[in-house]
Amino acid sequence: MSCINRRDLALLALRAGTGAVLIAHGTQKLFGWFGGGGLQGTAAAMEHMGFRPGKPAAIAAGLGEAGGGALLVLGLATPAAGAVAAGAMAGAVSVHAPAGFFAQAGGYEYPAFLGFTAAAVGLAGAGRYSVDHGTEHVFDQPWMVALAFAGSAVAAYTVVARRAVGQKAARNNGESGVGNSGENDGA
After folding, report:
1. Count of Cβ atoms closer than 10 Å to residue 148 Cβ
2. How far apart are CA 177 and CA 45, in angstroms?
3. Which of 67, 57, 46, 157 minimizes the C-alpha distance to 118?
């Protein structure tokens, strides 16, 4: 087996593993699968974590994870898939950041790892064993990488900044219950 085939096989394994985890987390949020809260439960949790309004935030997080994960598994529109999944994980990182780095203390280690892995695959491309390769990279053009990651960065920054402003306002008004709920938000 040549070095190129090993790299392509490694990209397939990385895409499949990361994408499957993201799909599972996203479907927890959207459908309540795998012990998740479903859309209603996730919307309430999003409100509690400071993402308002909660239902659109829950839909965006669920679609970013499940949709980005599904595209990663397929190796389809890989730059957009990696960027969307990384952007969704940026929101989860913002929730877990006050608890520090390590996941065992409620920190952001796990969502950061998923986000960086998805971003790396989005930047590297899906490899030979992918729909992108089979379609001659119709949805994996160099300009798409820049556009997808720029759009995802702007969206993630906007969501996280809006949450921070809302948290500050809530603290100033003496409200409680906004921030890291201590619950596992599923990254």
Report:
1. 22
2. 10
3. 67
